[in-house]
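new request in #modeling-help
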Amino acid sequence: MKIAYYPGCSLHASSKLYDIQSKSVLGKIGIELSEIEDWNCCGATSASKTDDFLAIALAARNLGIADATGFSEMMIPCSSCYSRTLVSQKALAGDPALKSEINAELAKKVEGRIKISNILEVLLSRQCDIKEKAVKKLTGLKPACYYGCLLTRFPSDMPVSDSVENPAAMEGLLKSLGAEPLDWGYKTDCCGASAAVNDMDMALKLMSKIFKDAAARGANCFVTTCPMCQLNVDAYQEEVREKYGTANNLPVYFITELIGISMGMGAEEMQIERHFTDALGLLKELKLI
Amino acid sequence: MSTSTLKYSLETSDALLKEVMDRSGQNLMSCYQCRRCAAGCPVGEESGVTPDRLVRMVLLGEKENALNNLLIWKCVACYTCGTRCPNSIQTSRINETLKQMAKERHIEPNIPRVASFHSSFVKSIAHFGRSNELEFMALYEIENFKKGGLTAVKEDIKNTSKLGRAMLTKKRMHFKLDRTKGKSEIKGLFNKAAKKRGVKG
């Protein structure tokens, strides 16, 4: 089965490993990702903070390209891209004047036909295939499943397939693969996102709460689907430890890495060495690689 | 600014309220100050202003405070406030509107670096259709330098070069320039946006 795929800027740059993993892990369960051609940046939160029109229009161009592929579904792994694209699609469906105004600028017009899915939704739809392909139990892995903000909360009313405040899809999936995900309180709290660059003290404070709770619950790693959350929580552990005295470093896995490991894929193949906080040590310790 | 001395101003409240409601698409009149948004806001404590206070400022016509406070710049767009509001008010949308209005009125942002960050990010999309981390960071630091001179960029450069070094070691730095071929379409959208802003401003 082939579906459309929008990687977004970060999966082509700092989170290239997530792009590679998404393709190979989904490939293994029979889903081929077809990257839409000549896509552009969705605008992320920056466009919505500066210009209401661009916030809808930038993602709309990608929607037009996606509709033209003829695929019925497009997967977007990055939470921010997923959110902006979904918000744009919904805004255009409810505002025909804006839709035709934007379509006038586009080579491929938005029809509003394609279904936008995040990576968790796609993985859940194939949970049976994942379990069937699993060759290794994720025994000893105690992840704090970290959803972040944009997977379940939107700036406009949006139907969400999981609980908004207490989602549990990641936990269910990982439990079925033998891991022991923990109950914890910060699964949908904000990592600070771009504040890590432009308001660092604020971001470090937000991350310190996440680290403290995960450690107090006995987590030995984080797992996430969002490249922004992954980068922040992975890269700033030292700074947070220095300032807030938080506990030891915890690896921050992409969901694809843990599913890949359970299906017998190698750490090298998934480029797990590209984490800021060592992510190979724990897997070796638990004899998962 | 003080939040404890909100004053109702007949002259300013109607115009401000109308503009914020029109542009944000949010019905501020339905706020009954239950403060669920305040309880959930991760940056309210540091900002000294919570989302409910922001709504109140607009309702009372406290224009200066509404356009000039830490919350509109510290907001991390986590959308917790809007998700928890029993009346479906998306305060983050109000926040975005106030930020844009402040810019149009040439009010100096309370945290200039936040403003520089977002405007540089959008500028980098205008250049190549995609955001390229290195080019974007360069634009961002140039903007910071223009606004605050060397002192403004010193701390930033220290922090980002630390991240930069880690990114190099972990092969997470991307040097190739990613670009969208449909330049004329991107340009068309940016032109239309500028035209719309012109009409508003």
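bot summary: Chain B touches chain A through 62 residues (CB under 8 Å).
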